[in-house]
Amino acid sequence: MWNREIAGLRLTFHLAGINNQNFLMRDDQTGTYWQQISGKAVSGPLRGSQLALVHSDELNFGTWRSEEPSGTVLQDNSKYRSQYEPKDWDVRMQRTQTVMDFHEHGLHARDLMLGIRAFGASRAYLYDDVHQEKLILDHVGGEPVLLVVGPDGQSVRAFRDRIPEAAGAPAFYRRPDGILMDAASGSEWNFRGCAVSGPNQGTCLAPVDMLKDYWFDWRNYNPKTTVYGRR
Amino acid sequence: MQRISRNVLLACLLFSFALLVYPVYVITPFRAQGARELAVALAVLQARPVADLSICMAALAALVYYWRSRPRRWRGALATLSALLVFAFAALARINIYELMFHSDDHPAFASASQTKLDKDEKVIAVNLGGAARAYPIRVISYHHVINDVLDKTAIVATY
Questions:
Q1: Closest approach of chain B CAs to the CA of A85, in angstroms?
Q2: Are residues B52 and B81 in the same domain?
Q3: What's residue A96's pLDDT?
Q4: A140 with A71, same domain?
Q5: How many domains does chain A have?
Q6: Residue A122 structural domain
Q7: Got the DSSP string for B46-69?
Q8: Would strands A5-6 and A13-19 be described as parallel, antiparallel, or unpaired?
Q9: A112 contacts in B (CB within 8 Å)?
Q10: Are strands A121-126 and A56-60 parallel, antiparallel or unpaired?
Q11: Is residue B139 part of a domain?
């Protein structure tokens, strides 16, 4: 999700090619080509420019709707609806060949990862590990972060593990209903990272941008990435 | 003059074909691309409209001169065919084949969460800007790949 405004222009993008299984897009205003995965302009008048990332979460629709009952949803375009992926698209994609692979950390090309590039570092978490542990307290580039699975058992969010006016990184634990508890204050925190009870009520943790991606792609764009739980 | 015209036509044919085919050859799904060849392919794409225009004009001029040299009929026909092919390659080069495969949605429509019938475990990309919340079902944006949108007066592009 990128901000379309850059260099005083509001750009309109179109699909313009496939680049190692990510895509390239081209803006109508300057004809510059941009990489979808990085938001970087790779060719054309704005070459070298960087689009600003807009924070987004990948969630189950039910979870999102319960959080945002007044939100709006992109509708199918009826002309092309028949060409949309079937519901098991992610299962089918697992079987699709890749054009590259990185045999590191015992990972396979299409292993699903959750990647964080922040605080000067890149770190990836095997989705299955996160799914299993439900809550991971970790560090990225020296900064404490936490990854938490929502009450739906599938959606995942990442936050900075810091509470204003609290020293150090609070130690959280996750209840079976998905509520986070911080041991120090006993506050309850919802899946949006906001305290809903206790001394920290009203405080929200800062979200951290995270990308759900296949290992080969994450590693291709993050050559120095570390992997949680792997050497 | 006849020979020069013929050689110019042949060169135009070869160049217009190369300009059409090379970027498609490089920028293809399921093919690993090196950074340099991608840069070259993109440079070709950017220079192509002007290059094609010049090539078409050169091909037309060459054809006119060739016919003026009174060639044999079949040679003249072949030259005309070559020029037509040059124009055809230039026209084909204007087509964005990626958007032929994955049509854009230039006027995306939105409905309220309560009016939207999706399974609760359908995956969406969720954004919240200035309190305005929007969800993009992955099954929709994974087809269109690019959705240009405005949310809370911020122009954003959802990509997948």
A1: 6
A2: yes
A3: 62
A4: no
A5: 3
A6: 112-227
A7: HHHHHHHHHHHHHHHHHHHHHHHT
A8: unpaired
A9: none
A10: unpaired
A11: yes
